[in-house]
């Protein structure tokens, strides 16, 4: 379905990209979000302080969703408040976001449902501390369940097209072998897209090796690959550029359990300009770590992967 709000969404994403890129920690404070963005002669808000689901008056469907970290001593009203409490849906690999109370009688829930019908992308402002947010975008609403009081969200990663709808997973039809395989594949893709997005968010959208903040060049890379049983957990992930990812996967660079970077002798012996020199200069440095200790790489997973690196250079 066509989105009549597409030009506003495009302007919002462009403005948010610029805003995030120039934040040293990749986070955005509410004061900056509240300033909004410009479309023609109008100033449009990104989000609303009081409501989690936001539809600007200039739009016909929701633009953003938001979770908050309550002030100290204040109660938590929704199960998805706070980054660590996000809930994975076991069937689809998608993530829960709680609707406003009131079901379809609430106008913000209806605005979010309209965005889902149109396949329109949203900005997800995830509260990481009081009045401070990690913007994750684009995300889409893939399933809308007013009776359960939540929606399921999909995220896209670099190189992926829109993730397939999971409507079939919610039907009562018996699943054929082919359909089961499709749903299983979709679940894994959804889960991995969220893993990558969540990992990059934990590192404030900066490469752990170089500090580069260009989102289009970043991936959330597994420490222990999924094929080897590595969990789709942030603690099994490191944010890095596509170049560092290729070097890491090829055991040209490694990271030990103390977060120190190692460079393989085969790479150290090569001489080919500034870019290669920059990678070689990483030897002995430590990777940049997430601010939140619970997101730091698991030392056991690093040791498992680093053993492979050491075996490859013998």
Helix share bin: 25-40%
The proportion of strand residues reads: 15-25%
Structural class: alpha+beta
Low-confidence stretches: 73-86, 158-183
What separation lies between the terminal Cα atoms? 56 Å
Biggest pleated sheet: 7 strands, mixed
Tally of helical segments:
8
Outline: elongated
C-alpha Rg (nearest Å): 21 Å
Q: What series of H and E elements makes up the topology?
A: HEHEEEEEHEEEHEEHEEHHH
Tell me, rounded to a whole number, the average pLDDT. 81
How many DSSP-defined strands? 13
Topology:
Blueprint: H1 6-21, E1 28-29, H2 30-35, E2 37-39, E3 42-44, E4 53-54, E5 64-67, E6 95-98, H3 107-118, E7 122-129, E8 132-145, E9 150-155, H4 177-202, E10 218-222, E11 237-241, H5 242-249, E12 253-255, E13 261-263, H6 265-268, H7 274-280, H8 299-312
Parallel strand pairs: 5-7
Antiparallel strand pairs: 1-8, 2-3, 4-5, 6-9, 7-8, 8-9, 10-11, 12-13
Q: Can you walk me through this structure?
A:
The chain is α+β, with helices and mostly antiparallel strands and 314 residues long. Helix content is 30%, strand content 20%. It has eight helices and 13 strands. The chain has helices at 6-21, 30-35, 107-118, 177-202, 242-249, 265-268, 274-280, 299-312, and strands at 28-29, 37-39, 42-44, 53-54, 64-67, 95-98, 122-129, 132-145, 150-155, 218-222, 237-241, 253-255, 261-263. The strands form four sheets. Strands 1, 4, 5, 6, 7, 8 and 9 form a seven-stranded mixed beta sheet that branches. The protein has a two-stranded antiparallel ribbon with strand order 2-3. Strands 10-11 form a two-stranded antiparallel ribbon. The longest helix is centred in the middle third of the chain and has 26 residues, at 177-202. Mean pLDDT is 81; it is low at 73-86 and 158-183.
């Amino acid at each position: 379905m066509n989105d009549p709000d597409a030009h506003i969404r495009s302007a919002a994403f462009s403005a948010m990209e610029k805003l995030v890129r120039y934040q040293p920690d990749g986070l955005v404070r509410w004061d900056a979000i509240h300033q909004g963005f410009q479309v023609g002669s109008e100033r449009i808000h990104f989000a609303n302080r009081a409501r989690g689901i936001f539809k600007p008056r200039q739009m016909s469907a929701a633009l953003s969703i938001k979770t908050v970290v309550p002030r100290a001593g204040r109660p938590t009203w929704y199960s998805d408040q706070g980054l660590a409490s996000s809930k994975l849906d076991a069937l689809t690999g998608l993530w829960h976001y709680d609707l406003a109370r009131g079901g379809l009688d609430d106008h913000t829930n209806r605005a979010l449902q309209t965005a889902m019908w149109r396949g329109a992308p949203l900005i997800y402002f995830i509260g990481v501390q009081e009045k401070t947010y990690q913007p994750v975008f684009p995300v889409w609403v893939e399933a809308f369940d007013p009776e359960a009081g939540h929606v399921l969200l999909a995220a896209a990663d670099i190189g992926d097209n829109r993730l397939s709808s999971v409507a079939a997973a919610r039907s009562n039809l018996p699943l054929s072998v082919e359909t089961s395989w499709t749903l299983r594949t979709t679940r894994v893709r959804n889960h991995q897209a969220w893993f990558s997005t969540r990992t990059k968010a934990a590192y404030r959208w900066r490469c752990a090796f170089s500090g580069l903040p260009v989102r289009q060049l970043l991936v959330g890379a597994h420490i222990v690959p999924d094929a080897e049983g590595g969990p789709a957990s942030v603690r099994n992930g490191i944010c890095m550029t596509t170049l560092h990812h290729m070097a890491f996967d090829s055991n040209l660079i490694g990271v030990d359990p103390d977060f120190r970077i190692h460079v393989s002798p085969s790479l150290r012996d090569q001489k080919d300009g500034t870019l290669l020199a920059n990678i070689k200069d990483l030897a002995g440095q430590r990777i940049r770590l997430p601010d939140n200790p619970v997101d730091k790489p698991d030392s056991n997973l690093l040791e498992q992967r680093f053993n492979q690196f050491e075996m490859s250079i013998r």
